[in-house]
Amino acid sequence: MRIGPGDVPLSAEELRAVVRFAVEFAEEVLPIFDERHDDARPRAAVSAARTFADGADRTKAQRITALDAHRAAKEATSEAASHAARAAGDAAAAAYLHPLAQATQVSHILRAAAHAARAAELVAGDVPSVGEQHIELARLRATPVLVDVLSRYPRAPAGKSRVAQLISAPIGGNPRLQPGEEPIPSVLR
Hints:
The protein has helices spanning about 10-35, 40-55, 60-75, 80-95, 105-125, 130-140, 145-150, 160-165, 170-175. By secondary structure, it is mostly helical. It has one domain. The protein is globular and about 45 Å long. This is Imm-5-like domain-containing protein.
């Protein structure tokens, strides 16, 4: 990928690692959306993202299905289903992470996991510890490649929404986590 002065170097394989990470979380919460909707748009977004993560070229399919999944999120009949669809759309959109050295790009890396965590919180009755456990799982699943990519970007901006808070939680708020570092999951403490 071409980069300009001050931009973040980002290889195709690193981009695939980012998308693969996002896909894992989106896939886990797709049933929350599917349970209430007969709408294939979020599943199509995850499929397009998975296709890229598995080695295919990046195409307009990731961009189109990401937008479609976000439209499905707006039409969802529950907040949890909406977040599940957003996670799917964000997984596909992650294929278009830019090598710009901007904190907003961290959201492109972590937003699918954060929306998945929020969907899980809501299904559990809006229990914050459920989302926090999902973010801890994200820390555990973060490959050395993903952590390295995160470490090249500025710290995620703090936000007021629950999703923004989850993005800036340990993995997003501390992108300087060392490759290979494995924190103890909160459920085991």
